[in-house]
């Protein structure tokens, strides 16, 4: 932020342009591409990084594991020049480096793919890649032909399967992410930092990404993989460092033995992450055959969604699995009432709700955990108390005679949600924008579950949550189901989440329901066929 | 009244659309870089006035022209400073510029030219340009005879702007500032400087549109001579979806409709106002067909350097 030079670099301030290459061929063990020593970063009230020492070997995939707020992202932002540390030093290839901006990081061969992509949607892949260092011909003119062939060549070399002429806006999330990686490589990144790269990906896309990262490693590049998902880290990484509350809990080599038999390592790493044993997943009982609370009959939006039929009974969790972009978002929107149901019917708790307004649906007991937290889940520029009561501002006890807001009632309710769902926030008068993503999500989930719902539309309810918080949300959903007979429609791109929680699983493909199964008698091949049945691979043609 | 559609109508329509073309293409540059430009009206007025004033003072309309372009760049700089450096609201600062330009040009007429109230004395205006071969074409020749080199320049400007924006590194960077300044800055594009250049170029082009009104068509400056053309240019820019060739087409449509109504109203019993509304009605009807216009993603958003 400030233009002040850092103190990282006492010995040799001029040093800075030494790419971390050309040290692959030393003694047996891989040399360190990066050595972080004593990195400390303090934010008001939080010690994000506390004296962190970390070595990342060249030509390896290094996992950085930790819960939300453990300090993984901060540490990597320091390495990428986005954040200036209060103390500590960075060595690249054995030399001190002063990384004061992302430009410097890029010049040093460090690239980072962040959770929010930095691509321009209206530009083609090639335009995005060459922006800032455009090839020209005949003086001032862009040489798009050369740029395209360069991009194509790079894409082919690592099998990215990206069309250089495709507009980024037309690409699926997984493909956009590959473009982001391609962009870093195009700019000469020897080392790639990926911040929670699988958060928005469906299982086949995760596999694809893993394959790509292995190919990059095999060609000598270094990859840092930030995640809080244990199975992915164990499967992909050569070495893992675990962070907890801003400190390094430990490092661990991952052997092929660990990969074939991951249980022991999983619980060891989970203990390091959380500080104690993981809570058990909720036990699955038989769903009570209660009344049907939500029922769709040949409902369609007249476009790409449906017609489809489904029902959710009280005391039952119905999971909806599928590759992203196969109508899950539209389904949730239609049940919520922001998308028109042009044909067919939607019945809510025994009544025909097809033509009901959103408000009436919510008032009759529908709750909605929004998939897109930033866009629809919260109003970031409002405080917690307002966010928690939003949508119910006109009803008691939050408002008197539908006119006067009762701030004290709103705050009391918000306090309850914050406590019960352990949302980390200085107070309920804090703007939601000041909360971390995980805490925002806890707030959204807490708000919806605290309203005494009868039917819960849970769209990606644990997106961005750490293991502990995700387990807590799962427990709450299961509890509401068992105890209060609530019906839950759980839409998730995480197959493991759907399978762990649901009584029945529906698989969506191309706007319809491709099949239904129970987690007990699941057959992976069939499931895979349903999920990909004619579906897009996420690659532009 | 089909007999209105003749060569004179065509020539007049082109001439009426030219000030719109300059201003709309200027607005396009500015908005593609992410700065909303409803200050086109004010920039046109500044150009129109300065052109006449300097021509009157120096006796040279060429000098007047260049002074007008400089004035456009200066007003553009002021607009850019408010929008980019001060990060003021872009609509508010542009409105202030429009009102200020209208007021100051009107106030300066009696201050400089004693006795003059609403308009300046006449000055030497730019004449039509003789294109030896084209002028002799039967029929169409009448059109070319009535065009000045400004008219040819306006039509040629659209493809030039297209090449600038889509075929040069500068254009790619300019558009990246309008789509995602943060992404642009992260790869080393100087967002602040690029936006300044774009808004100042917009000022120059809008001033050129103003000069056309005063130094080409009328040979004098009149209070409020632009009469809303800056806003019409803005509408044409949106009709054209921020793309140079469609923007040119939209301006021509407005100009031809305007020429039609000017000629039709003198031959009809119907109220003049009905005819005057014609270009706008046509604009609204075209809106039904052009579909949704998608503005640059980061338009109107100030960029805060990290």
Stretches with pLDDT under 50, minimum 5 residues of chain B: none
Q: What percent of residues of chain B are in strands? A: under 5%
| Percentage of residues in DSSP E strands of chain A | 15-25%
Instruction: Supply the helix-strand structural class of chain B.
Output: mainly alpha
Q: Taking all residues together, what is the mean pLDDT of chain B?
A: 90
End-to-end distance of chain A: 41 Å
State mean pLDDT of chain A (0 to 100 scale). 83
The run of helices and strands of chain B is HHHHHHHHHHHHH
DSSP helix count of chain A?
A: 18
Strands across the major sheet of chain A, in which order? 6-9-10-3-11-12
Uncertain residue segments of chain A: 1-29, 278-284, 534-541
Q: How many strands, what sense, and barrel or not for the largest sheet of chain A? A: 6 strands, mixed
Largest sheet of chain B: none
Number of strands of chain B: 0
Estimated helix fraction of chain B? 55-70%
Description:
The complex is a heterodimer of chains A (541) and B (306). Chain A has 541 residues and is of the alpha/beta class. Chain A is built from 18 helices and 24 strands. In chain A, the strands form six sheets. Chain A has a six-stranded mixed β-sheet, sandwiched between helices. In chain A, strands 18-21-22-15-23-24 form a six-stranded mixed β-sheet, with helices on both faces. In chain A, strand 1 and strand 2 form a beta hairpin. The two termini of chain A are 41 Å apart. Chain B has a domain of 189 residues. Chain B has 13 helices and no strands.
